Amino acid sequence: MGKRWLWIPSLLAIIVLLCAFDWPPQPYEMPRTLLTVDLLGNYLGGLFKSIRSIGSVGFVICMILSTIFLIPVFFRKYILKDFLRSQAIAKAVDKKDFARAVRAADREQNRQAIINDRVAEMEISYDVRKKFRELHPRAELEERIYQRQLSYVAGWEYHDTFDREKVEGLFKAKK
């Protein structure tokens, strides 16, 4: 029963649509337009005028936007320069103050741990020096001799009896 109700309205709609239009349609007489050089010139002139007006409006909009975006840049760069610099310095100082406060609180709460860390670093440094002296027993002596030669040269540089060949011989003898 439900399918019949659907068939009847759809069949009725198709019949109404087919009866409403004549088929085949009547031939249409299209009006003929005659294009002349003057008529095309007027059309192209209007087209060129519209393009120019669009371009000039676009140029005006571009100039307005450029001034809107450039004025704050110049204002910030030349007028607010010192103010912004002082604000940046104040902000950096605030960060340093915060870091100092954190370090102070850390020293207060973890004083013994910091002491233990530094003692451990000093022990490592001592062990490194000890190992270096074992590997290079003459290094400290050679460094002292080299420093003495440098001071000797520096002392003779300011005297009149400076003998460059004698001093250069000291450095060649070392090598």
In brief, what are we looking at here?
This protein is mainly alpha-helical.
Structure, explained:
With 175 residues, the protein is mostly helical. It has 6 helices and no strands. It has helices at residues 2-20, 37-79, 81-109, 111-135, 139-157, 164-174. The chain is elongated and about 125 Å long. It starts with a helix and ends with a helix. The model has no long low-confidence stretch (mean pLDDT 81).
Features:
175 residues; single chain; 6 helices
Radius of gyration using CA atoms only: 49 Å
Structural class: mainly alpha
**Tally of helical segments:** 6
| DSSP strand content | under 5%
Blueprint of the fold:
Layout: H1 2-20, H2 37-79, H3 81-109, H4 111-135, H5 139-157, H6 164-174
Helix pairs in contact: 2-3
